[in-house]
Design brief:
The complex is a heterodimer of chains A (175) and B (184). With 175 residues, chain A is mainly alpha-helical. Chain A has helices spanning 3-19, 28-38, 44-56, 64-102, 107-135, 139-154, 159-171. Chain A starts with a helix and ends with a helix. The chains are: A mainly alpha (175), B mainly alpha (184). The interface between A and B is large, with 98 and 103 residues.
Chain lengths: 175, 184
């Protein structure tokens, strides 16, 4: 990969940053089109593997973005895609945070935050619902998910133990 | 320029960096559960209400929700350097970890034992996400209107799988208008 291609990758992810409304997963199909279909930098299977790795590794789900950059162009690629996805949206967020700090009691700001709260809760539920299907391969995995919900709500057990338990259950073929 | 109206509880950029790096390294299967645990339960930097309102804002803005949240919280507590510290902690640590994992994966990713362990962890991670939804829902008033918006969003995005932009675009103006009128 030469400098011109690296610049193209950077500019393309810069543009995607503005389109990522509702979180970085919303631009996933477009990213797939660009790196797999248009440029052939990786196969569709490799793309899916990178995405899965980012899901199971510690860190936010958007970590698939540096991984794609890394796969295409090594460390420079990882930094290019990360900064391109990060800087435009973070700048906008900073501006909004600043306005919010200046006018915390603004009626419109209050209405936006209060009004969007139920929609946000609905979206978290929907994410859980959508993930439940592909992640849970048998009824026993659904039991594991349900058990996690109950233990998290009813006890103060450290969730890392639940994750460790899930890993052990998986290795013993219990799920 | 520091935030002038929000009171800063004396949280330093260094503390923001450490806490966000810490939470992100715990975040298997998404950072939302751990963000809430750190901000609301462990450090009590935000109330449940403040958390869910900031989350709504972070989701509305383009970009990764977790990063937006780090920007807002960091800026609120320690100005521009706080925002930079929170984001650096939130993304820097997992960046190193994930590339290390990618290198290892190239060699050992095919092992069945690894795949089975990951499958079990994924089922738990989904449970943590659902539990977070239940916990933050505690801030909603027991009236029919907010719960209607929860249900409509869930059915539109989760069950019908309609595009996010269409569902939120249709519901958000209505929800904000209702809150503006003080009925929600």
């Amino acid at each position: 990969m030469d400098a011109a291609q690296l610049a193209a990758l950077f500019l393309y992810f810069l543009m995607l940053s503005f389109l990522a409304v509702g979180g970085a997963p919303s631009v996933l199909p477009e990213m797939h089109r660009y790196v797999v279909e248009v440029h052939g930098w990786m196969t569709s299977t490799q793309f899916a593997e990178l995405y899965t790795l980012a899901q199971v590794a510690p860190g936010p789900n958007v970590m698939y973005i540096p991984l794609i950059g890394w796969h295409v162009a090594g460390w420079l690629g990882a930094l290019a895609t990360t900064f391109a996805m990060l800087v435009p949206s973070a700048t906008l967020t900073l501006l909004v945070a600043h306005l919010h700090a200046r006018h915390p009691k603004a009626a419109l700001g209050f209405a936006i935050r209060r009004g969007l709260t139920p929609i946000t809760i609905g979206l978290i539920l929907a994410s859980g619902w959508i993930l439940m299907g592909p992640v849970n391969e048998s009824w026993r995995s659904y039991v594991l998910t349900a058990l996690t919900v109950i233990l998290t709500l009813r006890t103060s057990v450290n969730p890392l133990w639940l994750l460790a338990g899930g890993a052990v259950a998986g290795m013993l073929a219990l799920v | 320029m520091k935030p002038s109206v929000w009171q800063a509880p004396g949280v330093s950029p260094r503390e923001l960096f450490v806490e966000f790096a810490r939470l992100t390294l715990h975040s298997f299967g998404g950072a939302l559960f751990w963000s809430r645990r750190m901000l609301v339960e462990r450090r009590r930097w935000l109330t449940e209400q403040e958390f869910v309102e900031l989350l709504a804002l972070a989701q509305l803005l383009p970009g990764a929700n977790g990063v937006n949240m780090a920007v807002i919280v960091g800026y609120r507590f320690a100005g521009y350097s706080g925002a930079a510290a929170a984001v650096a902690g939130f993304l820097g640590a997992p960046l190193l970890v994930i590339i290390a994992i990618a290198v290892v994966h190239q060699h050992y990713g095919g092992l069945p034992l690894v795949r089975d362990a990951l499958a079990g962890m994924s089922s738990v991670a989904v449970g943590l996400l659902l539990a977070t939804a239940v916990k933050v829902a505690a801030v909603l008033q027991r009236r029919w209107r907010p719960w209607t918006f929860v249900a409509l969003t869930f059915v539109g995005v989760g069950v019908m799988r309609w595009p996010l932009l269409a569902v939120v675009g249709a519901l958000a103006p209505w929800a904000v208008f209702a809150a503006w009128k003080g009925k929600s």
